[in-house]
């Protein structure tokens, strides 16, 4: 699980076009410290929250039974509109309000 999270940090950093040394300005972590965290670290929760903020991200616990729905929404909602759910001309693109998030945290409201 830790390696998957570390891979996600690296992938997010690369997606933002950032170098490890850029994290110093974003969150106050030296390149060496960030490199260590990204490669084999076991960061504390407060460190993860800080890194997420620096990567314009948010930490979230997702129940396993909702993971497929969350992934589907994220793939469908690509920022450039080219995600798996991009609408064809004249077709209504599904919205987040179409329900995949309902009940995510156990509240069915």
Structure, explained:
With 109 residues, the chain is mainly α. It has 2 domains: 2-54; 64-98, no CATH class. The protein is 48% helix and 0% strand. The protein has 5 helices and no strands. The chain has helices spanning 2-15, 23-27, 31-40, 45-54, 64-76. The protein is globular and about 35 Å long. It starts with a helix and ends in a 33-residue tail after the last helix. Residues 81-88 have low confidence and may be disordered.
SSE ordering: HHHHH
DSSP strand (E) fraction? under 5%
How many strand elements?
Answer: 0
Average pLDDT value?
78
Q: How large, in whole angstroms, is the Cα Rg? A: 17 Å
- Uncertain runs: 81-88
Q: Give the oligomer, counting copies of the same chain as homo and different chains as hetero.
A: single chain
Count of structural domains: 2
Overall, the morphology is globular
The major pleated sheet works out as: none
In whole angstroms, the N-to-C terminal distance is: 31 Å
Q: Which structural class is indicated by helix and strand composition? A: mainly alpha
Task: Give the number of helices.
Answer: 5
Q: What percent of residues adopt helix (DSSP H or I)?
A: 40-55%
